[in-house]
Structure formats: structure tokens, C-alpha cells
Amino acid sequence: MKQHDAMYIDGSWRPAAGSDTIEVVNPADERVIATVPAGSAADVDAAVRAARAALPGWAVTPPEERADRLAALHGRLTERAEEIAATVTAELGSPLAFSKAVHAGVPLAVSASYAELARTYAFEEKIGNSTVLHEPVGVVGAITPWNYPLHQIVAKAAPALAAGCTVVLKPAEDTPLVARLFAECVDEAGIPGGVFNLVTGLGPVAGQALAGHDGVDLVSFTGSTAVGRRIGALAGAAVKRVALELGGKSANVILPSADLAKAVGVGVANVMANSGQTCSAWTRMLVHKDQYAEAVELAAAAVAKYVPGERVGPLVNARQQSRVRGYIEQGIAQGARVVAGGPEAVEGPGYYIRPTVFADVTPEMTIAQEEIFGPVLTLLKYEDEDDAVRIANGTVYGLAGAVWAGDDAEAAAFARRLDTGQVDINGGRFNPLAPFGGYKQSGVGRELGPHGLAEYLQTKSLQF
Asked: How far apart are CA 433 and CA 22, in angstroms?
């Protein structure tokens, strides 16, 4: 077991102000694998002060030089990709193949994209007789979740650094080890002291201190809608900007002309990825009434391939395991039919949940309305396209979704009617440059690509 006792502040590893620690548990076997400092308000204050001191110099550093540092950071992350994957597997429980492909692979693509955008983005533009400047917003307080721990760090830190902002990161307490590894890469990349700072700690202590700190100009948070409301209130009291990437209950709409077997198979894989711990997962599968019975059979057969401990990992902790099991029991109590999985415990250690598929789900059921955040798929039937739109848009969320049809034009026409921030058409591929973010209670602002960079900029106009 590794015992870490320092925070990364002002370009060096410093002992925490207090002696409290957080245990990092491997959710696959429930063993404590490390401890990290439980940062206090004093640690947050030291990090914010360092970020404020570094801001003037980093903000005026030419974008090309910032791009060089980001390219060096990308290089260090690339060199340590195997270590990144192993670290995420140890603290999150993700199968190693998924950690290599997604938890390590996606942050590499995103970090490379921002190294390039820092060189090409129009930080100045001419509009009539004005020169419009896009300047860094200032010090960014980044609070990241445990489900995609490195991706969410990179999706916030890379554009903030490209914009000329300085950063204080408070990672999720369940997955702080890959955040420490990222800080090591920042240091190795030659990014100046104070430009990036890391404080590990608990959300109600370190997270709240960071969100409410007077020296923070923008708070970027990814997590639950409930916590997002709290952070929005703290930031609003100081009239500071927020970027909030929150919950989802995304619809996977299969139109009658689609390849049903392919759409169901990809849909099941989407929900089972990362043990269902994905905010944008297509957890509601909408199928036309005439194809519904066949879709249920296909989904049950597909999910049988996801064996706990093999293709699907554990949930992140015992609390999350209990929460997801409670939703499954609630679905049964409300009349939904389990066609695969169920609430029964998985034999052996680890915070596993049986991958579960529900049929006979109606739109008003809790499992069709609330974010479960586990390997649980609900199948709903619709009468016609208008009914499908009504069901798909009938939650407080609007983060992502999918539409399947016989051709892309038909699917895209339907997708335009959905109240959601991102829709995959007939299995469209992930694009690290496309804006990601939600409608309604799924959040405020966008991540990734030039839209993600713009979140960390403010605008000044010079009239001539």
C-alpha cells in the first residue's frame, strides 16, 4: 500500500496542512491500495494563491508557447499510457482492456487536440472597426468525477491551460491516484509552477472550499445534478462563471427501418461500458411496439455476454453498489419485468452488480426517469414517431442519445426533434472536437474542441 502525504502546489509536492487521509480502495477486491491527504480549506487556499500568482505570466505567454507545453504534456501522458491504464483499473475497477482503450486512449486524443487548438484558435479577430480579444477568464477551480477520472481532468485542464488560465484541481476522492500521475506529467512537461495545482480531498470540505473561494474566477464541475446545484449556488453568490456537466438519462431510439439486431447490440454495449457508470449512456432503449418483443429477446441475449469480473467490472464503491441495487428492486416493485440480471448479489468480493435488463417499463417509472449509474438497461415501447419524441424528451435530462434508422437522413431528421446536447446517428463515432454538454438539468456549457476552449475565455472589444 502506498501512502502519499503531499499535494502538488506551486510546482512542487508539499505536505498537506493537516494529517487526515483518504483510503483508496480497489473495488474489484475491496482492498485498500493507497492513502492520499484529505485536503482542507487551508490547502485549497494555498493552491488558489499559487494559481493567482502564476496567472499574469501564463496569461501573456504566447499561445504557441502554451501549445508547446501542452504538446510536451501529451508526450508524457503517451509515454505513461500503460501506467495510466493500470492505475485506473486499480482504483476504479475497470477491465484493463477498457482502461487502455478509453481511460488512457481518450485523454491522449483530447490532450493532442488542445495542443493543436492552442496554435490555431483565433484569440483575436476583426469585426468591423473593432478588434475583439478572447482572453483567459482567470483561475479555474476544476472538480472532477471518478467515472472517467483522467478524461475529465484533461477535458478541463487542457483547454483551461490552452486559454491561458491557471488551474486548481480537486479530483474525486475515489480515484485520486491517476490525478497524481497527471500532476507528475505536468511537472515533467515543464509547465511553470502555480499554473496547475492539485489538492486531493473530500467534496464537502475541499470541493466546497474551492467552489466558494474568492480567488477562483470559474468553477468547472462534472458530477451529479444535486451537487451541481450546490456549486452553482456557491458560484452565483460571488457572480463567478460555472461550467456544469451533470446527469443524464439518454434515449436510444430505434426506428422501424433500422437494423434492429445491430441497434440493440450496440445499445447494450453502450450501457454496459464502464459498468454503466457513464453519464451519457443510452439507458433508455425505445423500440416500436411491433418490434418490441424481438428487441427484448435480443437485449437479454446480448447482456448475457457481460460476465461480472470479465467484460464488466465492479461499481466504484459499496455505496454505489447499494444505490444501484436499490433502483433494481424499485423497478421490480413498480412492475417492470427483469429479463436479465437482477438484484441478487454476485458471489465473491468486489462491488459487482449483475448486468440487468428491464422490459415492460413505462415512462413514469423511477427507473425510466432517474439516473441509475450502473449496468441497467430499460426497454420502452412507442406507438409512432411523435410518441417516441414525447418519451425521449420526457425527463429532466438532456445530455446525449442515439437514433437508428434505415438511412442517416431519416435518423438525423428525428434527432433534430430531441432535446439533448449530443446524438449519435446510426452508431456515429466519438469525435474529440465535437462539443459535449447537455440541455435542461444535464448542465451548463460545453466541453471538448473549440467550444470547450471558449468556456475558459472572456471577450474584450477594442474600437478604432
From this structure: 35
How would you classify the pairing of strands 6-9 and 12-15?
antiparallel
Element (H, E) at 54: helix 41-59
Q: Are 113 and 67 in contact (CB under 8 A)?
A: no
Q: What is the pLDDT of residue 52?
A: 98
Number of Cβ within a 10 Å radius of residue 267: 29
pTM of the model: 0.97
List pLDDT tens digits, range 67-95.
Answer: 999 999 999 999 999 999 999 999 999 99
DSSP E strand boundaries for 138-229: 139-143, 166-170, 196-198, 218-222
Which residues lie closer than 8 Å to 274 by C-beta, 6 or more apart? 94, 98, 102, 147, 148, 313
233/236 Cα distance (integer angstroms): 5
Give residue-wise pLDDT tens across range 232-254.
998 888 899 999 999 999 999 99
Beta strands in 162-256 (DSSP E): 166-170, 196-198, 218-222, 241-245, 251-254
Nearest residue to 124 (alpha-carbon basis) of 135, 115, 108: 135
341: region left, alpha or beta (phi > 0 left; psi from -120 to 50 alpha): left
CA trace torsion 97, 87, 225, 143 (10° rounding): -140
Q: To 5 degrees, how large is the angle CA 344–CA 347–CA 353?
A: 50
Active site residues: 245, 279
Alpha helix stretches (DSSP H) within 215-317: 225-237, 260-272, 292-303
Closest by Cα among 222, 247, 223, 250 to 377: 250
Q: What is the pLDDT of residues 149-169, one digit of tens each?
A: 999 999 999 999 999 999 999
- The torsion angles phi and psi of 137, rounded to 5 degrees, stand at -75, -25
Mean pLDDT, the chain, rounded, equals: 97
What CA–CA distance (Å, rounded) separates 378 from 362?
Answer: 9
